[in-house]
Structures are given as C-alpha cells and as structure tokens.
Write a structure and sequence with these properties.
Strand content: 25-35%
Bound molecules: S-adenosylmethionine
Largest sheet: 8 strands, mixed
Structural class: alpha/beta
Distance between the termini: 50 Å
Number of domains: 2
CATH architecture of the largest domain: 3-Layer(aba) Sandwich
CATH class of the largest domain: Alpha Beta
Number of helices: 10
CATH superfamily of the largest domain: Vaccinia Virus protein VP39
Oligomer: single chain
C-alpha cells in the first residue's frame, strides 16, 4: 500500500472537497487530528503509478499542490493492522456494528442485531458521527412501525453499505442502496456476503443521485451525503419520499443546517402541505429529518 500526503491550506482543502465530490476520488481524504493541526491531504493506493496519475491530475487543476509530496510504503499486513486498530464495534439500542475481524470476540446479546463490516476504501466504518445519526433515525423508524417489514428503505450514497445492511438486518425487506462510486458498491456487495444476507434482501447499485431515485418511492430514505450535494438533489429526494414517510439527511455541518432546511422546507410544504423537520447534533455534525405527513 502506498501513502501520498502533503500539508495544504484551509482554502485549498475547501476547493478539494468540492473536487472530490464532483469527481469520484474515494482514495483521498483530508485529515486534521486536533483543531490546531494543519490539514493534510492523504491518499492511499495499492499501486504507486495510480497514485501518481491521480495526484498529477489534481495538480493540473490545483497548482499550489507541492510538486514533491511525501511518499510512504506499507506492507499489506502493516497497513491492515494500522487500519484495524482504529475501528471498534459500536452499538445503539439493539443494533451493533462490528468489524468483521472482531466477529469471534465481540459478543452480541441474544435477540439483538449485528452488522459485520469491512469498509476497506469506502466510507462507512460506523465510526463517523454522520453515520451514527442515521442509525438513530433508522431505529426510531423501526420502533415507530409494528408492520415495518413491508416498508421500503432507500440508502442514497451507501458507502460500505452499512445503513442498508442495518435496515435489511432489522427486518426491512425492500432495501435499495446506491452509490456513484463503483468501489463503494463492490465493498457493499462484499459486506452483504459477510452478513449472509441474500442478494435480494438489499440491492446495491452503481448510480448517482441524478438517476438513482428515478421512479422510486420509499417510506424511509437515508442520505448521508454532504450538504451541498443534498441541496442540489433536494427535489428528487423529496419526490422519492412516500406520504407518511421519513427523509433523513446527514453529512451536514452545524453551520450548514439552516441553509439545508431553507432548501428542503418549501419543497416539503409544497408536496405534503405541512413541514415537520427535526434536527439532531453529534459533535460538529447534524442531521435534518423530514417527516412527511
Ligand atoms: C459520507 S458517505 C456515507 C456512506 C454511508 N451511507 C454512511 O452513512 O456511512 C457518502 C457516500 O455518498 C456517495 N456519494 C457522494 N455523492 C454522490 C452522488 N451524487 N450520488 C450518489 N452517491 C454519492 C459517496 O461516494 C460516499 O460513498
């Protein structure tokens, strides 16, 4: 495994976030451990030539990136151990997210639900606040319905498949998940197999928000994608929400929540005649959840 990294300015980090969103670049991340630290651009690749190609493409657009970034090579075991050391099981209510390599030593109480995961290069280890906010909405939804098994769930931007598989394992039998990143779809399908879920129990499809929601309706939509993208696709997200359903949005920073609400509220009011929107906070992140009446 090859790591490429360099320190970048806050302004460049903002532009790169938009770039990563526009072009699928799942091998890259922006890292700041403590508030006072500078931001590091970091990429992980199996092949160094692939890293060099993507970095060179980025430098064409962002000329302030250094010509000679830092390179580090890990052997596969060292890399796997470093990655695994960061990820712990997490549970909320009766739902447990367990790294696959902890399958044998993590005890799931009888009658509770475990989802086994290896997110690999996809987003969705279960460690992020934005994912956890969605788990809470999923459990609220499950708890609100006794006949819940007939409810349809969509996971928009499924990453590792963590939310879609949680829905399937909690008993929802019409779960449709999509992501525009082919690597995320590959990882999701692999995770579905780790969980012994039949293919038909949760569909994982490569699609973007512009086409993934066409002709679809769901009683619960979970969309943990960044605020700007949610705003662009607000009409399709509201259109895909069934009457009486729930549209749960995440990936929203606290300072962005009002602007997301301002885009969604009039659409919800126009479609459902009433606006019931709730928001929860976890660290610097918020969700925004619409209850369609
Ligand atoms: C923050 S991750 C969420 C992953 C997972 N659902 C979770 O909650 O942990 C966002 C995911 O949305 C995908 N994504 C971003 N923009 C998208 C778009 N326009 N259409 C579909 N997927 C998108 C990304 O590839 C990424 O896997």
């Amino acid at each position: 495994m090859h790591e490429v990294s360099c320190i970048i300015s806050n302004e460049l980090a903002e532009s790169l976030e938009d770039y990563f969103c526009e072009y699928v670049r799942s091998s890259w991340c922006l890292l700041r451990i403590r508030d006072e630290d500078p931001i590091t651009l970091q990429g992980f690749f199996q092949e160094r030539v692939e890293a060099e190609r993507e970095y060179a493409e980025m430098r064409e657009q962002f000329t302030e990136l250094p010509a000679a970034p830092n390179w580090r090579e890990f052997d596969d075991k060292e890399w796997q151990d470093a990655y695994k050391a960061f990820i712990d099981p997490w549970s909320y209510g009766d739902l447990h997210w367990v790294p696959v390599w902890r399958r044998d030593d993590y005890v799931v109480p009888a009658g509770e639900t475990a989802v086994y995961l290896d997110a690999g290069m996809a987003f969705g280890t279960g460690a992020h606040e934005t994912t956890r906010l969605m788990a809470k909405r999923l459990l609220d939804f499950r708890n609100a319905y006794t006949g819940f098994a007939t409810k349809r769930v969509i996971d928009a931007g499924c990453g590792s498949g963590i939310l879609a598989m949680s829905a399937a394992k909690l008993g929802f039998n019409e779960v449709y998940a999509f992501d525009r990143d082919p690597e995320a779809v590959r990882v999701s399908i692999e995770n579905r197999a780790f969980n012994d879920l039949p293919d038909a129990s949760v569909a994982f499809v490569e699609a973007g928000l512009e086409d993934g929601l066409i002709n679809r309706k769901a009683d619960l939509i979970l969309a943990n994608i960044q605020a700007d993208v949610l705003k662009i696709h607000a009409e399709s997200l509201v259109a895909a929400t069934a009457p009486g359903g729930v549209l749960a949005l995440s990936g929203i920073l606290a300072e962005e929540v009002d602007s997301v609400r301002a885009v969604f509220a009039p659409l919800v009011e126009a479609k459902f005649g009433e606006v019931k929107i709730d928001s929860r906070v976890d660290g610097e992140w918020c969700d925004l959840t619409v209850f369609a009446s």
